[in-house]
Amino acid sequence: MINYLYEMLVALGLPNFLKNLSDSFTCPARKNFDRVTIRDQCKDLILTDETLQEIMSRLRSAIETGLSKDHHDSAIVKCFITYIQDLPNGKEKGKFLALDLGGTNFRVLIIHLDENHFDMQSKIYAIPEKIMVGTGEQLFDHIAQCLADFMKEQDVHTEKLPLGFTFSFPLRQVGLTKGLLERWTKGFNCSGVVGLDVVQLLKDALARRNDIKVEVSAILNDATGTLMSCAFQEFDCSIGIIVGTGSNACYVEKVENAELFDGDKSKPYVIINTEWGAFGDDGALDLILTEYDRTIDSESINPGKQLFEKMISGMYMGELARLALVKFTKEKHMFHGQGSEQLFTKGSFLTKYVSEIESDPPGSFDNCRQILEKLGLGHATEQDCINVRYICECVSRRAAHLVSAGAATLINKMEVNSVTVGVDGSVYRFHPHFHSLMIEKIAALIDTSKYKFDLMLSEDGSGRGAALVAAVACRER
Prior knowledge:
Elements: H1 2-11, H2 16-23, H3 28-41, H4 49-67, E1 80-81, E2 94-101, E3 105-114, E4 117-126, H5 129-132, H6 136-153, E5 160-167, E6 171-175, E7 178-181, H7 198-209, E8 213-220, H8 222-231, E9 237-243, E10 247-254, E11 269-273, H9 291-298, H10 307-310, H11 317-330, H12 351-359, H13 366-374, H14 382-414, E12 418-424, H15 426-430, H16 434-445, E13 452-457, H17 461-475
Parallel strand pairs: 2-5, 5-8, 9-12, 12-13
Antiparallel strand pairs: 1-11, 2-3, 3-4, 6-7, 9-10, 10-11
Helix pairs in contact: 3-14, 4-14, 6-7, 8-17, 9-11, 11-12, 11-14, 12-13, 12-14, 14-16
């Protein structure tokens, strides 16, 4: 009866305040109907263990193709050789520089290493959008300027220091200090760089300045840096994963399985940079792609590319949630069908909102309401807040479970009794449940009677790890 009266009053077009007031008297049956509707609509964002096992099988096959000499050129998951064969052993000493380029900010670091001692100074520099999509020369001149300014501030501009260069974009490495850019990701699209050696481009930019002396000792990406940074503390760390603006993973592989490796084969292992963000670009993920994923992809600057990354990383997670919210609002399942200009604006629902909303204690919606107010959705009911949180949970849990499937694939492939998985990135670091979700799901996807694992938050893998790669390279000379 109450539901009938409610619908009649709305149909008569009574003032909005009366309509809103009626929300507080909506019967439990109606609230439950809304919740069931949203839960049913979100089913395509929920992955079963059976589905994840299928994803793991396809990823394993993609990795083996990437390692293969005969099939590498057609591989989607490229599994690039890093030429890093030695991990930290705690005996590294000296003063080292690091550059970290992988997102909208660029960092320069100086690190002093001694036995049982670690000291680091760093500075963050912004990368203007016009440089992100300008020429390669502009980008590397900007990097060189930042490096020179930092060395002068640290009073080391007269010294010649080894440098580790974290360049977190898909690289085909042909040596420890030579890497050819395969393609740009994460919003970058600088001309005149793809196919070229980015180390040489940095050297050219430094030569144009001719005011500092730097020896580039190694180039790596942030996943490799994460592995190295964690291995400095846990010697069994042999997997590095990034879940931040983008997503990637690296792991320690037997040299005999890395068919393209043409380095020192007297050493048994080499780190492989999987570039798993591209997994699915050949259709391998079509069985789990949702309409939201397809919209994200079609509206991105690289349609058809980095599909695995687009389902996981911080660059897209907030937008995935927004697209679901927009759909359910237009279908009148949420907010009485009344959206807002902000909600309907691409990119307005930030990924950090997902973490903040899920940080609310059970039954509390303080963060959620504040965010909805910012989005012009102050008329949201408690049931709307419940639904918003559930949508965020579906998006973030799917991401955590996909990353877990990737980690489990590597653990199963390596077949080592105990492994520490180093993890870094803003999503893993700041989402309140990502770590626990990964622990639980990895354990469900591997044989825990055979393999033991732990997850370790990397302490600045892309910066500290880069310096450690340079330190290990110097140690091995």
